[in-house]
Design brief:
Elements (H helix, E strand, L loop, with lengths): L2 H17 L19 H15 L5 H5 L4 H13 L17
Length: about 100
């Protein structure tokens, strides 16, 4: 599995889980705004990705007109950039999925 395919599947699974739909019903090109993501969900996803993938995606990225496919590309780019890796959790926001 390629890196982009892994990130796409991971993001698709996590977003489907948090909004309560089956992963197969979440089109990777569908706007996250259309799915009803709000700021609380965005912060929860940000924290989950920080923990699991060790990348810092600003919560606002989830609220912009974006989709799973574009988030996967962003995560791939951030994971390849050593400066975006999470090394300390000073800015950790509380919340669980």
């Amino acid at each position: 599995m390629s890196t982009i395919a892994f990130f796409t599947t991971y993001i698709q699974d996590e977003i489907a889980k948090v909004i309560g739909i089956n992963t197969s019903h979440l089109d990777v090109e569908m706007s996250l705004n259309y799915l009803g993501l709000d700021s609380l969900i965005a912060v929860k996803l940000r924290n989950k990705f920080r923990k699991d993938l060790e990348v810092d995606i600003p919560a606002v990225k989830f609220l912009e007109d974006t989709n799973v496919a574009s988030l996967a590309i962003l995560v791939k780019e951030l994971s390849e950039n050593a400066n975006s890796k999470i090394e300390n959790d000073d800015e950790w926001l509380e919340g669980e999925l």
